[in-house]
Structures are given as C-alpha cells and as structure tokens.
Amino acid sequence: MKSKSQRMKPINKLAEKQEQQSAQVYAQCLANVRELDNQLQKLYSYRAGYNQQMIDMSKQGMGSHRLQDTLMFMSNLNQSIEAVLLQIQQQKKVCEDKKQRWMAMHTKTRIYNKVTKKYIVEEQVVQNKNEQKQVDDFNQSSFHRKLNSEYNS
C-alpha cells in the first residue's frame, strides 16, 4: 500500500503543471498588452508627426482640399488610437483575470506541497518509531537469551 506522500505525488505534479500553464497564459496575456501598447506608441508618434507636418504646411499655406484630406486622416488616426486604447483596457482586464487564476493555482500548489511535506514528516516519525521498536525488541531478546544462557549454565 502506498504511503500518503506517495499518493500525493501525482496530485502535486498535476497542480504544478496547471500552475505552469496558468503562468504561461498570464505571460502571453501580458505580452499581448505590451504589443498593443507598442502599437499605441507608434500611433501617437504618427499623430505627433502629422500634427507637426500640418502646422508646417499651414504656415506655408495649404489648399483646402489638402487640409480636408489631412483632417480626415487625423480623425481616422484618432479613432484608431481610441480603438487601441479600448483594446488595451479590455486586455488588461483579461490579464487581471489570468493573474488571479495563476495566483490561485500557485496557492493550491503550495498547499499540496505543504500537505505532502507534512505526510513525509509523519511517515518518518512512524518509521523512526518502528526502527526504534525493532532495536528495542532485538536488545530485549538478546538480553533474555543472555540471561537464560547464564541461568542455564
């Protein structure tokens, strides 16, 4: 019959595997947020560049058709920025959920490991007691044999 600590090994391995998977999912989620943030920074950079370009062109005199095209482009760029900001907010909420799941799995794994260690300590105490009992029994039987041999002699 397997000991409690041996029966816990597959449970510990499964919990550790689930924790690792949760950590990987969380890490991927964070990578997605970073990627979206990089896209946002590029859009901000484009907008700043086009704003500066528009300022420069307006100083030189700009045709109404060109001004309309630039304003339309800037409006689309601002909409893109807003869309990415919304995606980032949504992705951060998803990441928070993934983080909570990972932390729960981590806690579960720690609890299983702690229980397993407790079982190992308990089993070691029992084993030590059994070994000590065997030694005591051996010593006692040796003493009785010696005593009997002296008594019979």
Characterization of the model:
The chain is mainly α and 153 residues long. The chain has one domain: Helix Hairpins. It is built from 2 helices and no strands. It starts with a helix and ends with a helix. The relative contact order is 0.12.
- Compute the number of structural domains: 1
Count every beta strand, where a strand is a DSSP E run of 2 or more residues: 0
Rg, rounded, reads 36 Å
What shape does the CA trace take? rod-shaped
What is the CATH level 1 assignment? Mainly Alpha
* Elements, N to C (H/E): HH
Helical content (DSSP H or I, runs of 4+): over 70%
Residue-averaged pLDDT: 91
Summary tags:
153 residues; Helix Hairpins
Detail the topology: elements first, then pairings:
Blueprint: H1 4-60, H2 64-152
